[in-house]
């Protein structure tokens, strides 16, 4: 009986060492994936955010055009932002200032398809609109 027990212990020890080694390898892989250098998708998200920023700046020009055409109504603002926004935006009128808050849509291609970013921007429009300097663009306040 003691011979059988002696033979099983080395096998159990070997299995224990193999399982511990596999767990160590899995832990290293998880750490490498989570803490590793930026991936292609991380860079793609950055590019999508840059695309959204460009869209936000283009919308400023469309808002100026709408104001010069006398269409800085809610419908005119909606038309000016239609090409840029992800659909969600709000319009607040505060005296001679119109504040438009909008999620601006940016898209680029990533490693596994398209990557999008929808950062939030605020357009502070001072009336009457003279030119693009009448519209301040900045990221939404947290």
Characteristic key phrases:
142 residues, alpha+beta, 2 domains, 4-stranded antiparallel sheet, rod-shaped, transmembrane helix
Task: Explain the overall architecture.
Keywords: Membrane, Transmembrane, Transmembrane helix. The chain crosses the membrane at residues 12-35. This protein has 142 residues and is α+β, with helices and mostly antiparallel strands. The chain has 2 domains: 1-36; 40-139. The chain has helices at 2-35, 40-68, 74-81; strands at residues 85-94, 97-104, 106-110, 113-117, 120-126, 135-139. The strands form 2 sheets. Strands 1-2-5-6 form a 4-stranded antiparallel beta sheet, with helices on one face. Helix 2 packs antiparallel against helix 3 (74-81). It is rod-shaped and about 85 Å long. The model has no long low-confidence stretch (mean pLDDT 84).
Question: How would you characterize the largest beta sheet?
Answer: 4 strands, antiparallel
Overall 3D shape: rod-shaped
Question: Helical residue percent?
Answer: 40-55%
User: What share of the residues does DSSP label as strand, in percent?
Assistant: 25-35%
Compute the gyration radius: what is it? Answer: 28 Å
The total strand number stands at 6
SSE order: HHHEEEEEE
Low-confidence stretches: none
How many structural units, i.e. domains?
A: 2
Can you count the helices? 3
Average of pLDDT: 84
